[in-house]
Design a protein that fits this description.
The complex is a heterodimer of chains A (about 220) and B (about 200). By secondary structure, chain A is of the alpha+beta class. Chain A has helices at about 30-40, 50-55, 60-65, 70-80, 90-95, 110-120, 170-175, 195, and strands at about 135-140, 160-170, 185-190, 205-210, 215-219. The chains are: A alpha+beta (about 220), B alpha/beta (about 200).
């Protein structure tokens, strides 16, 4: 979707404001949201692409106003109802409703280190050869899907060069909508800064973007 | 539920505990891991090893996931790693324009500025301007390479080793390497000479 989350190349957002000696979390509730998202993610009822898409679906003005962890909280709340962990009534009132499911498969504290160490690898085995090779010229397709995509607007229609073949990975555009993993090759594609931003840009600079095969055409 | 996020999170957590969906001690353990165990000191050890051991550096640049696993820093949001090396000619900068992807096992959780709209919007179109906001002015002839983490690869910048630190131990070198230098918004500085005024 062409949402405000797709920020590459926008102006008007103000200067970057680094904070000295920044804490990991600024408020305890941020830490709890972070942990809740991780703890609920282990049930596997949604995936990282669906989670990202849920955050993108927050109305644009709200998304810009909210802090990072407020967006996490909003998306988590919606996912919990949508995937049957909470009823809409429970979310609205905060009270447990008798008769709704109680589950007891919570992530135990002693399994947390193993959970963090395992992660969720997104690469998949495949015998399919890559369509493009390093050094090959490619063009990012001009796709404008209304659903989730990881093809940023600023590279659409632009020409670049394959720098590296990363291997085969789950395809977010289908996975986010529970339409299957549809694994595809992912490429690091180098775009010259002048191709992306015009001739006023420094000529030797570049942006490398990781793109799935379905986002690319041969030139 | 209340609109104030602090109260809302508390209500949500209580409800999920009551339903048996989360163990509050597991939440404590997750928070503890990222507040105290997992952070930029991990990435700094990888960089220091690469500076001291050319064979390790070659492995890191060829297959970062495997080389980083040698030191035990794999896992959540670092499942697939790429290391990019700063040289006299090339300066690398990492961003995620679409969300805020970041190599957790090596750098911990991202700072607010990395997740902010100003950084995400301008790092790709005006990297030199962004670096100036970090008080880093690069020579005009340096090539700036920006890495936008749009897929599941996570990026570690291997900064340049400062001159005059060749005799330092790996541990001493690791203490010089900052989070910002591994994102690419800073250089690593040599320590002030002891006793110098």
């Amino acid at each position: 979707m062409n949402g405000v989350h797709d920020m590459g190349g926008m102006h008007g957002m103000g200067p970057v404001q680094p904070e000295q000696d920044e804490p990991v979390f600024h408020h305890r509730w941020e830490a709890r949201v972070f942990a809740l998202v991780r703890a609920m993610g282990r049930f596997g009822r949604w995936n990282i692409d669906a989670q990202r898409h849920q955050r993108e679906l927050i109305p644009a003005a709200e998304q810009l106003r909210m802090s990072y962890y407020e967006r996490w909280l909003e998306a988590l709340s919606i996912l919990l109802v949508r995937h049957g962990f909470l009823s809409a009534e429970e979310l609205a009132t905060g009270d447990f409703v008798a008769g709704t499911d109680k589950l007891t498969a919570a992530l135990p504290a002693d399994k947390v280190p193993a959970y963090i160490a395992a992660g969720f690898p997104a690469s998949r085995r495949s015998d399919r050869p890559p369509r493009f090779r390093p050094g090959q010229r490619v063009r990012a397709r001009n796709l404008n899907p209304t659903g989730h995509t990881r093809l940023p607007r600023y590279v659409r229609g632009k020409a670049g060069m394959v720098d590296r073949v990363h291997g085969v990975f789950v395809f977010p555009d289908t996975n986010a909508h529970f339409l299957g993993e549809s694994p595809q090759h992912v490429y690091s594609v180098r775009f010259d800064a002048q191709e992306l931003w015009g001739e006023a840009t420094t000529s030797q600079d570049s942006v490398h973007v990781d793109l799935w095969e379905g986002y690319l055409d041969a030139t | 539920m209340p609109s104030d996020p602090a109260l809302r999170v508390m209500a949500l957590e209580s409800l999920l505990i009551e339903k048996g969906l989360v163990d509050p001690q597991a939440l404590d353990a997750l928070i503890e891991a990222y507040e105290h165990r997992i952070g930029p000191h991990n990435g700094a050890r990888v960089v220091a090893r690469a500076w001291k051991d050319p064979d390790y550096k070659a492995r890191l640049l060829a297959d970062a996931s495997a080389a980083i696993a040698e030191l035990g820093f794999s896992g959540l949001q670092g499942e697939h790693m790429m290391a990019v090396e700063n040289t006299a000619a090339v300066h690398n900068l990492v961003v995620c324009t679409l969300c805020s992807c970041y190599p957790y096992p090596l750098l911990g959780l991202p700072p607010v500025w990395y997740k902010s709209a100003p950084y995400r919007s301008r790092a790709v179109i005006d990297p030199r301007g962004v670096l100036r906001e970090f008080a880093l002015e690069l020579p005009a002839e340096t090539e700036v390479r920006v890495w936008d983490s749009t897929a599941e690869l996570r990026y570690l910048v291997v900064p340049r080793q400062p001159a005059g630190t060749e005799e330092m131990t790996e541990e001493q070198l690791a203490s010089l390497v900052t989070r910002d230098s591994m994102i690419g918004v800073a250089l690593v500085r040599a320590p002030p000479v002891a006793g110098a005024r």
